[in-house]
């Protein structure tokens, strides 16, 4: 499985934008970049995913480097409820391939 | 629409006891998964079932067995629990549909083995 590298932890002030980086230098051409997050004492939840182009949804934006060796999850205005562990995961485009989790980035949001 | 449900929420076992963790999904998903999460770690795959009637080992299958009872239900059995199996167990399911194979997770079962 292609590996990803994320900072162990990050901190943000409430209502400010947060940029969570992920390096994936060994990504293959068919790997999608998925982001999940895990709120305290809950199971992970899907945030966003993309292949080559930048993506936006109601939760976040995903910016993908032109060479696809890195990506950034952007939370436009962090709230206290965004405090979680964020996982960047590469997943081949084959329907039932299980997610492979690293340790992720623990985001703390300060009021 | 309950999504993915897991029972029980909490369980304490003594070494050597057996138990079955239950998981059910009501989203008509083909694939189901069992993960464990140890403190401060990411999730690790135990077993998964790509479709009804099939199961495959994941990264850490030793000490566990699974049953895909039907399309909705996927159970995880510990035949002889050990303290090393103290963990939080998450079940997940997903539909097989191109890149939109989002996995949906249950709330977890917190298991302590004494």
Description:
Chain A is mainly beta. Chain A has strands at 9-13, 18-23, 31-38, 45-50, 55-56, 61-64, 70-75, 84-92, 105-110. Chain A has a five-stranded mixed β-sheet with strand order 1-9-8-3-4, with no helix packed on it. A four-stranded antiparallel β-sheet of chain A has the order 2-7-6-5, with no helix packed on it. In chain A, a hairpin with a 4-residue loop joins β5 (55-56) and β6 (61-64). The termini of chain A are far apart. Chain B is built from no helices and eleven strands. The model of chain B has no long low-confidence stretch (mean pLDDT 93). Chain B is mainly β. In chain B, the strands form two sheets. In chain B, strands 2, 4, 5, 6, 9, 10 and 11 form a seven-stranded mixed β-sheet that branches. Chain B is globular. The chains are: A mainly beta (111), B mainly beta (114). Chains A and B meet through β4 of A and β4, β5, β9 and β10 of B.
Note the run of SSEs of chain A as H and E: EEEEEEEEE
**Amount of beta strand of chain A:** over 45%
For the largest beta-sheet of chain B, the strand count, sense and barrel status come to:
7 strands, mixed
Helix content of chain A: under 10%
- Count of extended strands of chain B: 11
Q: Which strand-content bin applies to the residues of chain B?
A: over 45%
Mean of residue pLDDT values of chain B: 93
The helix content of chain B, as a percent range, equals under 10%
Shape of chain B: globular
Q: Specify the number of helices of chain B.
A: 0
- How many DSSP-defined strands of chain A? 9
Low-confidence segments of chain A, given as residue ranges, are: none
Largest interface: A-B, 23 and 32 residues
Q: What gyration radius of chain B follows from the Cα positions, in whole Å?
A: 13 Å
Q: Structural class, from secondary structure content of chain B?
A: mainly beta
H/I helix tally of chain A: 0
Q: Give the terminus-to-terminus CA distance of chain B.
A: 36 Å
């Amino acid at each position: 499985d292609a590996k990803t590298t994320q900072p162990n932890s990050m901190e943000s002030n409430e209502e400010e934008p947060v940029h969570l980086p992920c390096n994936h230098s060994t990504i293959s051409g068919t790997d999608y970049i998925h982001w999940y997050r895990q709120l305290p004492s809950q199971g992970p939840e899907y945030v966003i995913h993309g292949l080559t182009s930048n993506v936006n949804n109601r939760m976040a934006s995903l910016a993908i480097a032109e060479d696809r060796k890195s990506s950034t999850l952007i939370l436009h205005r962090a709230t206290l409820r965004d405090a979680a562990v964020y996982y960047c995961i590469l997943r081949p485009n084959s329907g039932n391939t299980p997610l492979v989790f690293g340790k992720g980035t623990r985001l703390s949001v300060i009021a | 629409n309950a999504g993915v449900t897991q029972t029980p929420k909490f369980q304490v076992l003594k070494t050597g006891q057996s138990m079955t963790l239950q998981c059910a999904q009501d989203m008509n998903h083909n694939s189901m998964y069992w993960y464990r999460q140890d403190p401060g770690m990411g999730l690790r795959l135990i077993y998964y079932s790509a479709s009804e009637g099939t199961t495959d080992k994941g990264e850490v299958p030793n000490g566990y067995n699974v049953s895909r009872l039907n399309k909705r239900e996927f159970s995880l059995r510990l035949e002889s629990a050990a303290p090393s199996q103290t963990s939080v167990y998450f079940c997940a399911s997903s539909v097989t549909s191109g890149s939109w194979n989002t996995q949906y997770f249950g709330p977890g079962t917190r298991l302590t083995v004494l």
